[in-house]
Amino acid sequence: MSTATAPGLGADHLAHVADSTATTPRGTTDGRHGIRKPLALVGRLVLCLVFGLPLLFMFVSSFKPDLQIFGDLGSWKAFLPVGDVSLDNYTGVFGRVPFAQFMTNSVVITVVTVVLGVVVNSMAAFALARIKFRGSGLVLGLILATLIVPFETLALPLLWWVNKLPFLGPDGLTEGWLDTYQVQIIPFIANAFSIFLFYQYFDSIPKELDEAAKVDGAGWFRIYRSIVMPLSGPAIATVAILTFLPTWNQYLWPLMSVQSEELRPVMVGIDYFKQLNTSWGQIMAYASMITAPVLVLFIAFQRSFINSIASSGVKG
Amino acid sequence: MTTITSAESASATRRGRAARRGDKPGSTRTPVKGSRSSTTTALLMLAPAGVLLITFLLVPIGLTFGLAFTNARLISPRPAEFIGVDNFVRLFEDDTFWASLRNTVIFAAIIVPVQSACALGLALLVNVKMRGVNFFRTIYFLPVVTSMVVVSMLWLFMYQKNGLINQVLLKFGIEGPDWLGDPKTALLAIILMSAWQAMGFHMVIWLSGLQTIPGDLYEAAELDGAGTWEKFRYVTWPGLRATRTFILITITISAFALFTQVNIMTQGGPLDSTSTVVLMAVRTGFQQQQTGYASAISLVFFVLVLAVTLVNRRLTRDKDA
Predict the structure, then answer these.
(1) What CATH number is associated with residue B295?
(2) Distance (Å, rounded) from C-alpha B6 to C-alpha B1?
(3) Regions of chain B where pLDDT drops below 70
(4) Which of these, B203, B44, B28, B52, lies nearest to A224 by C-alpha position?
């Protein structure tokens, strides 16, 4: 079909577009642009090097002593685990910073933000998408309007503001959220974009289900918990992933809002390696360790990751 | 050319229908009258998100406007005083501000077209049905799941005078510059790295856009004798209109928010050549604790983002909408 009839040269990638979107199965071998195909393949492979090699370099270098990292730069050895390979940099990292503490902090902050984010935002979206009440359109409009406000514009006023906020915690009522766990979690639970993503998904689930459940005597909360949420796996995954990535990667906010070493997340911890005499091997080891968990999750849930990013773009 | 019009009108009808559906979300369901108890439940379910959004989004938005006209300090026993437009006067007389604004605008002006075009190229390259295509998508996407902090440290090393990049260039007989040490190349170096990191993200968004274009449009175009370029120009490009708007706006906003890379790699130097608006806001509002002045910077930044978003929307808006 399409590829076979594509006229002229240079039809390659467009033909491909058509192919992968075509509704009928395709039989696509053709000799017309025989040169273009290998060319595209070479292009893809070169790009693999461009995107993959720096990360490979990071992982490989984390096992080498500094001197060898520099020595290997001029050859392919830079990308191969050869020579004096050891775990010295890793033990060095643990000796230099409280890495386990940083890691625990990041995991706690990320898990709590993701879980509470899914619950809080889905509930709000449920109310907006499925319960009829006066002003729901207005609320939704207001939430959508805030989508164009980047966090960076609010960071400094927010910093001033959280420093004034009271907090009722285990130590009783305290004032000022700076240098706490909650300052890294609570401001990021409710998220306009997550609400929007849930709203879109909930809106597409047939409303007849609600009617049927109500006939059976279920209340709205029951419908939310037992009918709509179990049907919303993809939306939950999308929101979880789109919350997980930025939370794990947070840098600006913890840099400003947290001073104590024992509360810092992993991303801010990397600054320690720039201050004292720099060991690039240790930096690479540290960088590898804070990247590995995300990479493992990404490889394990690749499809969900890609789909969640893709669905974040559907808003047009 | 019939395909052109049919392609455009087909997608227009689809969009129109979608828009109509969007306008009246309740039109397809049997309207349930909002009873009092329903309203109560709805408000209860909205409450947690509502309280949090008001506290950590709406109030800070209001504060940005309010504090910009005061001398508020981050930690100070004295209450903030209203000082009119003093912060703005000071800001507009500050050379670092103009340098930061210029860098931010240059950064956005270069990275928006470069990154979106390259990402579209990537998307077209991997929008094929062939064995192993997922492998390529995965590799191109790897930098996206790597944090900007890690990427910045990695490239800081690679950009050194005798670093990996210059060593590779040397293999091709090119003597590379001192990327981050030279005011002439520092911003460019940060642009290249940032594009490298985020390209996979927008590749995926372009891909999902490409896959909404029905295959029969291409077949129809081919029947009319359209070549590669014509198909791209008259089928693919119009079909990507909504995706385009989204990508332009998201890249622009994140470009204006440039901070992490700069803070880790250059701290704004050399000679303010990589200072940015957000970096300056953090310097004044956090390190020097001048919240009022930082709010003024944030406000200028906010207005800038708003203006660009609105212009972007207008320029890329559906002509038929």
Answers:
(1) 1.10.3720.10
(2) 9
(3) 1-35, 316-321
(4) B44
What CATH topology corresponds to A98-269?
Answer: MetI-like fold (1.10.3720)
Residues B241-258, buried b or exposed e (16+ Cβ, 10 A)?
bbbbbbbbbbbbbbbbbb
Strand partners, B82: B70
Distance CA B235, CA B143 (A): 31
Cβ of residue B149 closer than 8 Å to a chain A Cβ: yes
Joined tokens for residue A178: 């700076």
Q: What is the mean pLDDT of residues A116-138?
A: 93
Secondary-structure breakdown of chain A: helix, strand, coil percentages, each rounded to the nearest 5: 70, 5, 25
Asked if residue B114 belongs to a domain, the reply is: yes
pLDDT above 90 coverage of chain A, percent: 57
Q: In Å, how far is A173's CA from the nearest CA of chain B? A: 18
Above 50 in pLDDT, residue A16? no
Shortest CA distance to A110 belongs to which of A169, A180, A189, A176?
A189
Asked whether residue B50 is assigned to any structural domain, the reply reads no
User: How many whole angstroms separate alpha carbon B195 and alpha carbon B186?
Assistant: 14
Query: Where are the domains positioned within chain A?
Result: 1-19+32-49, 98-269
Q: Rounded to a whole number, what is the largest CA-CA distance in chain A?
A: 76
- No. of H helices and E strands in chain B? 16, 0
Structure tokens at B269: 């130097």
Q: What is the domain count for chain B?
A: 1
Q: Is residue B59 part of a domain?
A: no
Size of interface A-B (CB pairs under 8 A): 355
For B117-146, b/e burial (b = at least 16 CB within 10 A) is ebbbbbbbbbbbebeebeebbbbbbbbbbb
Point out the residue among B41, B256, B291 whose CB comes nearest to the CB of A157.
B291
Name the band, by pLDDT with cuts 50, 70 and 90, for residue A4.
very low
In angstroms, rounded to a whole number, what is the distance separating the alpha carbons of residues A178 and A256?
Answer: 9
Picking from A20, A120, A187, the nearest residue to B211 by CB comes out as: A20
Structure token digits, residue A210: 């609600």
> Which structural domain range is residue B175 located in?
94-316
pLDDT at A271 over 90: no
Torsion angle of C-alpha atoms A306, A308, A314, A316, degrees rounded to 10:
-100
Confirm or reject contact between B22 and chain A (CB < 8 A).
Answer: no
Which chain A residues contact residue B189 at CB under 8 A?
none
Q: Which of A17, A76, A196, A289 to mutate to test the interface with B (most CBs of B within 10 A)?
A: A17
Q: How confident is the model at residue A233 (pLDDT cuts 50, 70, 90)?
A: very high
Does the pLDDT at position A34 exceed 80? no
Tell whether B216 lies on the interface with A, counting CB pairs under 8 A: yes
Rounded to the nearest 5°, which phi and psi values hold at A133?
-150, 155
Q: Is B160 on the interface with A (CB under 8 A)?
A: no
Q: Residue A167 forms beta bridges with which residues?
A: A174
Are A105 and A298 in contact by the 8 Å Cβ rule? The answer is no
Alpha carbon distance B184, B270 (integer Å): 9
Categorize the per-residue pLDDT at A281 as very low, low, confident or very high, splitting at 50, 70 and 90: very high
Secondary structure element (H or E) that encloses residue A172, with its range: strand A172-175
State residue A166 phi and psi, 5-degree precision: -85, 160
Please report whether residue B217 resides in a domain. yes
Give the pLDDT mean for A213-228: 91
Q: Is residue A255's pLDDT more than 90?
A: yes
- The structure tokens 């000082």 sit at B83
- Chain-chain contact of B222 with A2 (C-beta, under 8 angstroms): yes
